[in-house]
Structure formats: C-alpha cells, structure tokens
Specification:
The structure holds 2 protein chains of 2 kinds.
Chain A: H1 3-20, H2 28-40, H3 54-67, E1 71-74, H4 81-91, E2 96-99, H5 103-106, E3 118-120, E4 130-134, E5 137-139, E6 144-148, E7 163-169, E8 173-174, H6 177-187, E9 195-199, E10 204-205, E11 213-214, E12 221-227
Parallel strand pairs in A: 1-12, 2-3, 2-4, 4-7, 5-8, 7-12
Antiparallel strand pairs in A: 5-6, 6-9, 10-11
Chain B: H1 8-17, H2 19-41, H3 46-62, H4 64-77, E1 81-85, H5 88-101, E2 106-109, H6 113-117, H7 120-126, E3 130-133, H8 136-144, H9 160-171, H10 179-196, E4 199-202, E5 206-208, E6 213-218, H11 222-228, E7 232-238, E8 242-243, H12 246-260, E9 268-272, E10 286-292, H13 315-318, H14 321-326, H15 337-348, H16 350-353, H17 355-358, H18 365-369, H19 376-389, H20 395-408, H21 411-429, E11 434-435, H22 442-445, E12 450-451, H23 458-470
Parallel strand pairs in B: 1-10, 2-3, 2-4, 4-7, 5-8, 7-10
Antiparallel strand pairs in B: 5-6, 6-9, 11-12
Helix pairs in contact in B: 3-12, 9-10, 15-19
The chains are: A alpha/beta, B alpha/beta.
Chain lengths: 228, 472
C-alpha cells in the first residue's frame, strides 16, 4: 500500500476516534494530562505479596520460580559458578556452553572446568545445548527473570539452546514488576533496550488436549544460579 | 476465513452430535475454569485490580487518539515504522508490500487473532509468500487446513488422534499417542523454518505509548524466535491495545494470565522496541508496526465502546455454557463465545451475525469473570435490539414477542392465560411431574424433560400472602 494510502487511513482513523469522543480539537489540558501520565508513570495497585522486606522477597522469588518449573541453585560466591555450571550440565548430559560476553561472566575461572565444558561466545544457533546469561533483576511476585538485549548478550541465547542457565544476584531480586521497570529505566535512560525478556520458567505448551508438556520451542530447562 | 455465522443453528446442531468435539470440549471445561478460580483465590487483590483495569481502559479510550500519537512517535524514534490501516484489505496489502520489499519467500508467524481477522495467510499464499504458523496449536491447524476455534487455545476442538494423524501425514513419521513426542516433532520441524524465514510476523498483547514498545505474551517461545531470527519483524496489532506506561501494562498483565490459563504469569513476556541496535549481534534489522482499525474506531463513543476494553484473555468463552456445548467453530468466524457475539456483528454486520448475540442464555457468567468488567450480556442485548429494529429477526420471534407484549400489557388477560397454561401443563405432566414432549418447545424437550408447574401462579401466591399478612 502506498504511503499516501496509509496517511489517509491514519487521518480517517483519528477523525473517527475524535468524532466518537465528540471533540474536534484536543485541549491543551488534555494533552498535558496525557504527557504527565507518561512522564510520571504512576503505579497502580501493587499486590501485598510483593511488598514485603527483601529477605521475604528472595524466599518468594525462589518459591515462585520453582513453582514455574525453574531449577534454583544457590551459590556462596560468584567464583563457584564455573564448577556449578559444569556440574549442572554434566547431570543433563551436556558439555557445550555458549556464554554471554559480559565481563562478570567471562572473567571467571572457566579454565578450571576446561575438560568438562567447551565454552563459546557467540549468538545462539539451532542445535545449541546450553547458554549462560545474566539477569538484570528477578521479580519475586511471580518468580520472573528480566533480561535485556545488548551487544554482550544476544537475545537468541535466551531462546535457542535446550538449557538456559541464568545468573542472578540476590540483591537484584525485587518485589513487583514496577521495581523492575525502574531498574530498566536506570540502566537505559530515555529508550528501552531493543528487547526486554521477562522469563518465568522453561518453555511449555498445552495445545494438545490441554495437557501441559514442557519444552515447546524455547529452552526445555531453565536453571537459575543465585549468587550473593 | 469464510463467514459461516449465518449457519449458526445448523453448525450448533451438528456440533452437539459430534462425539469427538464433545470429548475435546470436555478438556476445556475440566481445565480453564478451575485453574482460573485457583489463581484468583491466591490473589486477594484480584477484584480491586479488575476495577482499576476497567477504569484505566476507560481512561485510555477517552484519550485513544493522544496515546496512539505518542506510541507512533516513540516507535519512529526507536527506528521502527508505523502503518495505519483502516480496513482488512489495507492491512493485507501493507504487509504483503513489506514482504515483497524483502523478497520474502517464507514468513514465520507467532499467534495472532488479528491476522486471522484480516485473513492474512490466504492472502500471502495467493501472492507467493508462504506463511508458517509456529504456535503449536496454530501449526497443527495449518497442517490440517483448519482454523482456530478458541482465541488462546486454537486447537481445543481436536483430540490427540487428530494431531497424530496430521503429523504422520506431513512429517513422514510413525504415529504416536504421546503428546510429548508430537511436540518434540513439531519443535524439530519448525527449527528449520525459524532460521529460513525472511520475515517474522507477530501480534501484540499491548502497545506501550511511553516507550514505543510492543509486548507479546507466549508460553512456547515461538513468538520470540519468530521476531528475533528473521531480518524483518512485523507486528500486527489492533489500535485499542495501546496502554500509557509500563506500570499500566503491569496492571493488565496481573489479570491476563490468571484470567486466561490460570497461570500466575505467562512464561515469556517480551517487549520489542524498534530495530536492532548498532552493536547488537542479533535481532531484526527492520521493525514495522501495522495498526489495524477494521471498525474499531467506529465503536468509540457508542454503546459498544466498552467492548474495546477487551484484553483477549478468553475467560468469557471458557465459562460460557453455549461455547462449552457447541465449540468455537459454530460461531462461524474468527472470534467465538460471548466476546465474539459482540465483536462479530460489528465486523461482518448484524445481517450475517444476528444469530450470535441470540445464542446466549444470559446467565451472566461471562461478565462475572471478565477481567475488565465488560457488560457482555448488555452488549449482546444491544445487538438483539439492533436486529429487531432492522426487522432482521425471524417472523416467529417477532410474532412471539408481539403476542407476549399483547398479553403483558393486559394484566387481566395475562393472569387468566398463565393460570390456564399452568393447569394445562400440570395435566400434561400427569403423575410423573415431568413433560417429555411439549408443542413448540422441542428444542427444550428433545434434550431434557420440562418440570411441571407444581402450585399456583406467582400472582395467585402473592395475593394469598398479601391477604394473610393483612390478618393480625
């Protein structure tokens, strides 16, 4: 369709809406009210369950993530990650890992597990066994991870591998989604990253006879490594 | 999709006799309502959230033009393009043109009811572009040349054997009666398609004006592969899906999964804001948002405006006794159940869809479970009135209503007649107290017995009681 046509479609749609709302001109007050809402992004009702103290939120996050069929592995320090990852993959019969290129991850002692896990840094590809990426926050309310796209962490790593491993710091666990949006605005002021993924457990489908099956098109398994 | 809504009566009759369909519908009734109830019980704030969601949707609709303008401006800032489409035809042409600019041979698709509404697949195929549905349910339907019968569980009308049969025929594999094996098969087959596609088309559950983002909600992850791997991502959405901010979207997300599948949260909630950033290693280079009106802007400011609050959760059809008895295909077009009975007449005309708003017992369950409190029975009644005004209702209905009005406005006659009818039915029922055949009411008595009136009429009882109360 020509650009002209979509512009006339646009004009028609807006004219129709304004006719329905019985106004030809929008008042400055109305525009200001809309601008204010967008700028201040006020919060709506937040459930009580996601407003407890941090300790309680961590416990809730773990419970909800496990309920959504994610595995949660608690570590005493980040340094333990390579060995924990190697053990997890071994248990799943996997020996290949695509690593996001974030410094926190690449700087770890992967040499230690060299014989057990073959590490790569690249985008996800069909046939990949496992990936390791870092979450921005964990949302306790529903056990949800928030990840975002950046040069170091391609989105395909979150979806193509059979097993998705995610590192999350306990202090990055928040209660409600609203706290996560604030963190996102902090790290990416003025414009969101291209892709923001909220992930709650591994992929699934109930499209055949409403019987839930795990591992539809995304990762079959989701493992969360909680570090201090 | 061919419009078969005028044949609702025949379709419903056939559906009621279809043992396989009835078995499949049993899965729906045994699943969704109980799961929703459990999720609601875990969220004490659920009803308060529904009130806020209704009010927020009303606020959005009162400012729909302004939020759409803001959304458009942010998409463009993010490096995307917005296309406005007044009709289905405009939308189809726009999407085809984008595909042609990319020399697209195959297009992967995430689940989208709007693309069903605009009949996109058929159109693309006719013009040499092969669409590939990637949602498991939609994939099964595409192999069978079938259409969704439910807005979130598209293949709910099928049984395991149907899926096994379709896969056996198209995948050249032995049949299996294990859903896990069948799903693994679909996963393997679609992996190649995800990578080969030139364009990925998804719908959107919400459009965020604050950030110019589109959001999709899926459990399978197919939508994410659809929009991440191809060079071009096209989002097809209707205009009423815009919300002001991420906080506002959160309010609806708290209601959506719980109302739909009874999940606390859907597995993947993904925001897309424009195209790939300079140093990104993956993601689409081109980002298009195709905004479809298709009669929605005409609903603004009318009685039907309330329907634009709909967030497509499917709770209304999951709880509807009519949907549960006849299934989605009987409704004869894209949107089934109570929400479809309100939307379909708007989109294809009351002349063709007149039977749908009549296919309701007005039990009110749909309104009771609606997360944004749409008065669905009231809106169906609106269409019944329109139908009557336009003289579209069948003669039997018009005469029946006329006859009833004649008696209802003459109380003496009405009482005389109803007392007579009551006695007649008591005689007809005899000692059994049940009537198994009643003139003019075979639709009822074919499936169940009519109980006989047991006592006096309401007016007789009322007068007797009044007398009693007057005595000291």
């Amino acid at each position: 369709m020509s650009e002209e046509k979509t512009m006339s479609s646009r004009a028609e749609i807006f004219a129709n809406i304004r006719r329905g709302l019985r106004r030809t001109e929008t008042s400055e007050a109305q525009r200001e009210a809309v601008r204010q809402r967008l700028q201040q992004h006020p919060r709506n009702l937040i459930p009580a369950r996601s407003q407890h103290d941090h300790e309680a939120q961590v416990a809730l996050f773990i419970r909800m993530a496990q309920e959504a069929a994610a595995e949660v592995v608690q570590l005493e320090s980040l340094d333990q990650l390579p060995v924990a990852v190697a053990d997890t993959l071994k248990a799943k019969g996997q020996d290949e890992l695509i690593l996001a290129s974030d410094d926190t991850l690449t700087g770890l002692g992967w040499a230690e597990v060299h014989g057990q896990v073959e590490c790569h840094q690249r985008v996800g590809q069909v046939g990949d066994q496992a990936s390791l990426t870092q979450a921005l926050v964990g949302i306790a309310e529903t056990g949800t991870l928030m990840l975002y796209s950046r040069p170091e962490s391609p989105t395909t790593l979150n979806f193509l591998p059979d097993t998705h491993l995610v590192v999350l710091s306990r202090q990055d666990i928040v209660g409600p989604y609203e706290d996560a949006w604030d963190r996102l605005r902090e790290i990416s002021p003025g414009r969101l990253p291209r892709t923001v993924n909220m992930i709650t457990g591994p992929s699934r489908s109930a499209d055949i006879e409403q019987k839930l099956q795990m591992g539809a098109h995304g990762p079959r398994q989701l493992v969360i490594f909680l570090i201090p | 999709m061919e419009i078969k809504s005028p044949e609702f009566k025949q379709s419903a009759r056939i559906a009621l006799q279809d043992a396989n369909l009835q078995k499949a519908l049993g899965n729906l009734k045994a699943g969704f309502p109980g799961k929703r109830a459990a999720a609601v019980a875990r969220m004490p704030e659920f009803d308060a959230l529904r009130d806020q969601a209704r009010d927020l949707k009303n606020h959005i609709l009162e400012n729909l033009d302004l939020y759409l303008e803001e959304f458009e401006a942010r998409v463009v800032e993010n490096g995307g393009q917005v296309h406005w489409c007044r009709t289905s035809d405009d939308a189809r042409q726009t999407i085809l043109q984008i595909c042609r600019e990319q020399n697209a041979k195959t297009v992967t698709k995430g689940k989208s009811m709007v693309t069903e509404e605009i009949n996109l697949n058929e159109y693309l195929e006719e013009h040499g572009v092969q669409p590939v549905e990637t949602d498991l349910g939609e994939y099964i339907l595409q192999l069978r040349g079938d259409h969704p019968s439910h807005i979130i569980a598209p293949a709910i009308h099928l049984n395991l054997e149907d899926v096994s049969e379709a896969f056996h025929e198209h995948h050249n594999r032995p049949k299996s009666d294990d859903p896990a094996v069948l799903m693994a098969e679909a996963r393997e087959m679609l992996r190649k398609q995800f990578v080969a596609a030139d364009v990925g088309i998804t719908g959107a559950n919400f459009l965020v004006a604050e950030t110019g983002s589109t959001l999709i909600v899926t459990n399978e992850g197919n939508g994410d592969l659809t929009q991440t791997l191809p060079k071009t991502h096209i989002v097809v959405s209707s205009i009423e899906k815009v919300v002001p901010t991420l906080e506002d979207m959160s309010l609806f997300l708290r209601l959506l999964a719980r109302s739909a599948t009874g999940q606390e949260f859907t597995v993947y909630n993904t925001l897309s804001s424009g195209n790939r950033r300079p140093d990104d290693q993956d993601g689409p280079e081109n980002f298009h948002v195709v905004l479809v009106d298709n009669g929605r802007s005409d609903m603004v400011g009318t009685q039907l405006q309330d329907m634009l609050r709909c967030i497509r959760c499917s709770a209304c059809m999951n709880h509807c006794p009519v949907y549960g008895a006849v299934g989605g295909h009987s409704y004869g077009w894209v949107y089934p159940g109570p929400m479809g009975s309100v939307l379909t007449p708007q989109m294809i005309g009351i002349e063709k869809a007149g039977l749908l708003p009549n296919a309701s017992t007005f039990c009110g369950k749909c309104e009771e479970v609606c997360p944004v409190r749409i008065p669905l029975p009231k809106l169906m009644r609106h269409w019944r009135e329109k139908e009557f005004e336009k003289h579209l209702s069948p003669k039997a209905v018009r005469w029946g209503l006329g006859g009833w009005a004649f008696f209802a406005t003459r109380p003496g006659l009405y009482r005389l007649f109803s007392a007579g009818a009551s006695t007649f039915m008591r005689l007809l029922g005899g000692k059994k107290g049940k009537i198994s055949k009643l003139p003019l009411a075979a639709g009822w008595t074919d499936h169940r017995d009519m109980p006989t009136p047991t006592g006096k009429t309401f007016m007789q009882q009322w007068q007797a009681r009044q007398k009693q109360e007057q005595q000291p």
